[in-house]
Amino acid sequence: MVVGVNGTGKTTSIAKLAKHYKDQGKKVLVAACDTFRAAAGEQLEIWTERVGVEMIRSQPHQDPASVAFDATKAACARGLDVVIADTAGRLHTKINLMEELKKIKRVMGKALSGAPHEVLLVIDATTGQNGLSQVRMFNDAVGVTGIFLTKLDGTAKGGITIGIADQFKVPVKYVGLGEKPDDFQRFEPAWFAEALFT
Ligand SMILES: Nc1nc2c(ncn2[C@@H]2O[C@H](COP(=O)(O)OP(=O)(O)O)[C@@H](O)[C@H]2O)c(=O)[nH]1
Ligand SMILES: [Mg+2]
Protein backbone atom coordinates (compact mmCIF):
# COMPACT_ATOMS: atom_id res chain seq x y z
CA MET A 1 0.00 0.00 0.00
CA VAL A 2 1.47 3.33 -1.07
CA VAL A 3 0.38 6.56 0.65
CA GLY A 4 1.41 10.20 0.64
CA VAL A 5 0.15 13.67 -0.21
CA ASN A 6 -0.50 14.62 -3.83
CA GLY A 7 2.49 15.52 -5.93
CA THR A 8 5.07 13.73 -3.81
CA GLY A 9 5.55 11.09 -6.51
CA LYS A 10 3.36 8.15 -5.50
CA THR A 11 2.29 7.12 -8.97
CA THR A 12 5.76 7.52 -10.47
CA SER A 13 7.32 5.56 -7.62
CA ILE A 14 4.75 2.79 -8.02
CA ALA A 15 5.71 2.53 -11.69
CA LYS A 16 9.35 2.22 -10.62
CA LEU A 17 8.61 -0.50 -8.08
CA ALA A 18 6.30 -2.34 -10.46
CA LYS A 19 9.01 -2.44 -13.12
CA HIS A 20 11.59 -3.50 -10.53
CA TYR A 21 9.46 -6.49 -9.43
CA LYS A 22 8.58 -7.37 -13.00
CA ASP A 23 12.27 -7.38 -13.94
CA GLN A 24 12.76 -9.91 -11.13
CA GLY A 25 10.25 -12.18 -12.84
CA LYS A 26 7.39 -11.43 -10.45
CA LYS A 27 3.78 -11.02 -11.52
CA VAL A 28 2.59 -7.58 -10.48
CA LEU A 29 -0.88 -6.07 -10.21
CA VAL A 30 -1.34 -2.37 -9.55
CA ALA A 31 -4.61 -1.23 -7.94
CA ALA A 32 -5.78 2.29 -8.72
CA CYS A 33 -7.38 3.31 -5.44
CA ASP A 34 -7.27 7.05 -6.07
CA THR A 35 -10.78 7.00 -7.44
CA PHE A 36 -11.51 10.65 -6.72
CA ARG A 37 -9.39 12.09 -9.49
CA ALA A 38 -10.10 10.61 -12.93
CA ALA A 39 -6.70 11.83 -14.09
CA ALA A 40 -5.00 9.78 -11.38
CA GLY A 41 -6.30 6.54 -12.83
CA GLU A 42 -5.37 7.57 -16.35
CA GLN A 43 -1.84 8.49 -15.33
CA LEU A 44 -1.41 5.16 -13.59
CA GLU A 45 -2.75 3.36 -16.64
CA ILE A 46 -0.18 5.05 -18.88
CA TRP A 47 2.61 4.06 -16.51
CA THR A 48 1.51 0.47 -16.05
CA GLU A 49 1.25 0.05 -19.82
CA ARG A 50 4.68 1.55 -20.26
CA VAL A 51 6.34 -0.78 -17.77
CA GLY A 52 4.16 -3.72 -18.82
CA VAL A 53 2.24 -4.68 -15.70
CA GLU A 54 -1.45 -5.21 -15.05
CA MET A 55 -3.73 -2.73 -13.40
CA ILE A 56 -7.17 -2.83 -11.80
CA ARG A 57 -9.23 0.29 -12.08
CA SER A 58 -12.64 1.21 -10.76
CA GLN A 59 -15.49 3.31 -11.90
CA PRO A 60 -15.02 6.96 -10.97
CA HIS A 61 -16.08 7.58 -7.35
CA GLN A 62 -16.25 3.87 -6.56
CA ASP A 63 -15.18 3.09 -3.02
CA PRO A 64 -11.36 2.96 -3.15
CA ALA A 65 -11.34 0.23 -0.52
CA SER A 66 -13.35 -2.06 -2.75
CA VAL A 67 -10.74 -1.66 -5.49
CA ALA A 68 -8.01 -2.65 -3.04
CA PHE A 69 -10.07 -5.61 -1.86
CA ASP A 70 -10.81 -6.83 -5.39
CA ALA A 71 -7.18 -6.48 -6.45
CA THR A 72 -5.90 -8.45 -3.47
CA LYS A 73 -8.51 -11.18 -3.96
CA ALA A 74 -7.79 -11.37 -7.69
CA ALA A 75 -4.05 -11.61 -7.07
CA CYS A 76 -4.56 -14.49 -4.64
CA ALA A 77 -6.92 -16.31 -6.98
CA ARG A 78 -4.55 -15.94 -9.92
CA GLY A 79 -1.32 -16.64 -8.07
CA LEU A 80 0.22 -13.22 -8.61
CA ASP A 81 3.19 -12.14 -6.51
CA VAL A 82 2.83 -8.44 -5.78
CA VAL A 83 -0.11 -6.06 -5.43
CA ILE A 84 0.67 -2.35 -5.22
CA ALA A 85 -2.17 -0.04 -4.23
CA ASP A 86 -2.00 3.60 -5.31
CA THR A 87 -4.06 5.81 -2.99
CA ALA A 88 -5.36 9.37 -2.94
CA GLY A 89 -3.29 12.15 -1.42
CA ARG A 90 -6.17 14.52 -0.91
CA LEU A 91 -9.92 14.07 -1.24
CA HIS A 92 -12.34 16.36 -2.98
CA THR A 93 -15.13 15.32 -0.68
CA LYS A 94 -15.94 15.57 2.98
CA ILE A 95 -14.59 12.10 3.56
CA ASN A 96 -11.49 12.12 5.72
CA LEU A 97 -8.40 10.89 3.89
CA MET A 98 -6.96 9.13 6.91
CA GLU A 99 -10.22 7.28 7.55
CA GLU A 100 -10.24 6.17 3.94
CA LEU A 101 -6.64 4.94 4.12
CA LYS A 102 -7.42 3.01 7.30
CA LYS A 103 -10.31 1.35 5.54
CA ILE A 104 -8.19 0.42 2.52
CA LYS A 105 -5.64 -1.13 4.84
CA ARG A 106 -8.31 -3.00 6.77
CA VAL A 107 -9.99 -4.52 3.74
CA MET A 108 -6.70 -5.62 2.20
CA GLY A 109 -6.17 -7.54 5.43
CA LYS A 110 -9.60 -9.10 5.03
CA ALA A 111 -8.81 -10.19 1.49
CA LEU A 112 -5.47 -11.67 2.56
CA SER A 113 -4.41 -12.16 6.15
CA GLY A 114 -1.34 -10.04 6.91
CA ALA A 115 -1.84 -7.67 3.96
CA PRO A 116 -0.72 -5.05 3.28
CA HIS A 117 2.78 -6.33 4.02
CA GLU A 118 4.22 -2.89 3.51
CA VAL A 119 2.78 0.60 3.98
CA LEU A 120 5.13 2.77 1.99
CA LEU A 121 4.95 6.52 2.54
CA VAL A 122 6.16 8.69 -0.32
CA ILE A 123 7.90 11.88 0.80
CA ASP A 124 9.25 14.59 -1.49
CA ALA A 125 12.82 15.32 -0.37
CA THR A 126 12.55 18.92 -1.57
CA THR A 127 9.75 19.75 0.90
CA GLY A 128 12.17 19.85 3.81
CA GLN A 129 10.89 19.71 7.35
CA ASN A 130 7.23 19.69 6.31
CA GLY A 131 7.91 16.10 5.36
CA LEU A 132 8.28 15.28 9.03
CA SER A 133 4.72 16.28 9.83
CA GLN A 134 3.59 14.13 6.90
CA VAL A 135 5.42 11.16 8.40
CA ARG A 136 3.74 11.78 11.74
CA MET A 137 0.27 12.12 10.22
CA PHE A 138 0.40 9.01 8.05
CA ASN A 139 2.25 6.96 10.62
CA ASP A 140 -0.36 7.71 13.27
CA ALA A 141 -3.15 6.72 10.90
CA VAL A 142 -1.89 3.64 9.09
CA GLY A 143 1.47 2.67 10.56
CA VAL A 144 4.16 3.39 7.99
CA THR A 145 6.66 0.54 7.47
CA GLY A 146 8.96 2.32 5.05
CA ILE A 147 9.62 5.58 3.23
CA PHE A 148 10.16 6.18 -0.47
CA LEU A 149 12.03 9.49 -0.59
CA THR A 150 11.54 11.05 -4.02
CA LYS A 151 13.24 13.85 -5.97
CA LEU A 152 16.59 13.38 -4.33
CA ASP A 153 18.00 14.34 -7.74
CA GLY A 154 16.50 17.80 -7.25
CA THR A 155 17.91 18.58 -3.84
CA ALA A 156 21.43 18.81 -2.53
CA LYS A 157 21.35 16.52 0.45
CA GLY A 158 17.93 15.29 1.50
CA GLY A 159 18.66 16.18 5.10
CA ILE A 160 15.11 15.26 6.05
CA THR A 161 16.31 11.65 6.09
CA ILE A 162 18.14 12.28 9.34
CA GLY A 163 15.07 13.78 10.98
CA ILE A 164 12.87 10.88 9.88
CA ALA A 165 15.29 8.28 11.20
CA ASP A 166 15.76 10.23 14.42
CA GLN A 167 12.11 10.90 15.23
CA PHE A 168 10.19 7.97 13.84
CA LYS A 169 12.41 4.92 13.53
CA VAL A 170 10.80 4.34 10.15
CA PRO A 171 13.38 3.23 7.60
CA VAL A 172 13.91 5.07 4.33
CA LYS A 173 13.84 2.11 1.94
CA TYR A 174 14.05 3.68 -1.52
CA VAL A 175 15.12 6.94 -3.06
CA GLY A 176 13.79 8.46 -6.28
CA LEU A 177 16.43 9.98 -8.52
CA GLY A 178 14.45 11.16 -11.54
CA GLU A 179 11.22 10.81 -13.46
CA LYS A 180 11.94 7.63 -15.42
CA PRO A 181 11.12 4.07 -14.26
CA ASP A 182 14.74 3.12 -13.61
CA ASP A 183 15.56 6.34 -11.73
CA PHE A 184 15.54 4.95 -8.22
CA GLN A 185 17.53 2.78 -5.89
CA ARG A 186 17.42 1.17 -2.50
CA PHE A 187 18.50 3.59 0.18
CA GLU A 188 22.06 2.92 1.25
CA PRO A 189 22.87 4.60 4.58
CA ALA A 190 26.64 4.45 4.02
CA TRP A 191 26.35 5.96 0.57
CA PHE A 192 24.05 8.65 1.92
CA ALA A 193 26.28 9.52 4.87
CA GLU A 194 29.25 9.86 2.57
CA ALA A 195 27.32 12.14 0.22
CA LEU A 196 26.44 14.39 3.16
CA PHE A 197 30.08 15.15 3.80
CA THR A 198 31.41 15.47 0.28
N1 LIG B 1 12.97 14.82 -10.38
C1 LIG B 1 12.13 13.88 -9.91
N2 LIG B 1 10.82 14.00 -10.15
C2 LIG B 1 9.99 13.03 -9.67
C3 LIG B 1 10.47 11.93 -8.91
N3 LIG B 1 9.40 11.18 -8.56
C4 LIG B 1 8.31 11.79 -9.09
N4 LIG B 1 8.65 12.90 -9.76
C5 LIG B 1 7.76 13.87 -10.44
O1 LIG B 1 6.87 14.44 -9.49
C6 LIG B 1 5.63 14.78 -10.11
C7 LIG B 1 4.48 14.20 -9.33
O2 LIG B 1 4.56 12.79 -9.41
P1 LIG B 1 3.29 11.84 -9.26
O3 LIG B 1 3.81 10.44 -9.33
O4 LIG B 1 2.22 12.20 -10.19
O5 LIG B 1 2.83 12.19 -7.76
P2 LIG B 1 1.54 11.71 -6.94
O6 LIG B 1 0.55 12.83 -7.02
O7 LIG B 1 2.03 11.51 -5.54
O8 LIG B 1 1.05 10.44 -7.55
C8 LIG B 1 5.73 14.26 -11.53
O9 LIG B 1 6.07 15.33 -12.38
C9 LIG B 1 6.88 13.24 -11.49
O10 LIG B 1 7.54 13.09 -12.72
C10 LIG B 1 11.90 11.86 -8.64
O11 LIG B 1 12.42 10.96 -7.98
N5 LIG B 1 12.67 12.86 -9.18
MG1 LIG C 1 -0.81 9.86 -8.20
As laid out across the biggest beta sheet, the strand order is 1-5-6-7-8
Number of strands: 8
Q: List bound small molecules.
A: guanosine-5'-diphosphate, magnesium ion
How do the helices and strands follow one another from N- to C-terminus? EHEHEHEHEHEHEEH
Shape label: globular
**CATH architecture classification:** 3-Layer(aba) Sandwich
Q: Which consecutive residue ranges, at least 5 long each, have pLDDT under 50?
A: none
What's the CATH topology name? Rossmann fold
Q: Kindly, what is the distance between the CA atoms of the first and last residues, rounded to a whole number of angstroms?
A: 35 Å
Q: What Rg, in angstroms, do the CA atoms define?
A: 16 Å
Number of domains: 1
What is the name of the CATH class? Alpha Beta
Helix content: 40-55%
Overall average pLDDT: 92
Folded structure, characterized:
This protein is α/β, with parallel strands linked by helices. The protein has helices at residues 10-23, 38-51, 64-78, 97-111, 130-142, 160-168, 189-196, and strands at 2-3, 28-32, 54-56, 82-86, 120-124, 146-150, 172-176, 184-186. Helix 4 crosses helix 5 (130-142). The longest helix has 15 residues, at 64-78. It is globular and about 50 Å long. The chain starts with a strand and ends with a helix. The mean pLDDT is 92. Bound molecules: guanosine-5'-diphosphate and magnesium ion.
